[in-house]
Amino acid sequence: MEQSNRTQLVVAMVLSFAFVVTASAQLEKKSYEQWSEKEATQLLNDSPWCQTQAVTDTSKMFDTNRRLDSGQTRVADVTTVNFRIRFFSAKPVRQAMSRSIELKQKGQVSEQMAAQLKALATADITDYIMVTVTVDAPNPSQALTDATSVLLKLNTAVLKNNTYLLVKGGQRLFISEYQPPRRDGFGARFVFPRVVDGNPFITPESGEVQFFSDLNNEFRMENKPVTLSTRFKAKDMMFDGKLEY
What we know:
Elements: H1 2-27, H2 37-45, E1 50-57, E2 79-87, H3 91-104, H4 111-122, E3 128-136, H5 142-153, H6 156-159, E4 163-166, E5 172-174, E6 177-179, E7 188-193, E8 195-196, E9 199-200, E10 208-214, E11 220-221, E12 224-225, E13 227-233, E14 238-239, E15 242-243
Antiparallel strand pairs: 1-2, 2-3, 3-7, 4-5, 4-10, 6-7, 8-9, 10-13, 11-12, 14-15
């Protein structure tokens, strides 16, 4: 029975990923300016360029000293913080962000903002890789406040030896600059060089690309330090016939 459950889980994960890749391919068939809010959100949260790392604290579920009122469940005691990790330098990500902002404005976008959003969506980034990280949660919590605070106070010096991109073969590319979140909502910016020894660091042959960042023990859940670690498949990061990252 245990083996059967394991097999079902693997199949479900494969089907889920296949759906994400197919959905991304569907978006290429129309201009980003025609994407729905659901499509833009899907690309920003779960796509070949964007992954969500959910960090959960279940410790209060097992607090035997806490009395539950009638009808109350332990589910309410589960704290989750979502880290949205995105290859922001990838054009489809910037297009989804631009479209999402436009839709939230509900037709109230000024000419100046429209021009800025178009520039964001169409710019070709050729000299650096930017990974952004935002945090959100299903419900307000101290953990969400702490995670937000950590992103604001981190700096390049703290991250330079434990934040990197990793590709097939074990080659690591360490961060060159960290920029805390701004008011634009794009999130914290992790900047890496795009070219190493005259060659692009990421190519279609790179296999899996891992983003790794040890938050230097600044943020903890269940009294354990949180490390950001997400993997992306380079071969699936194609968009309009070009490797986008």
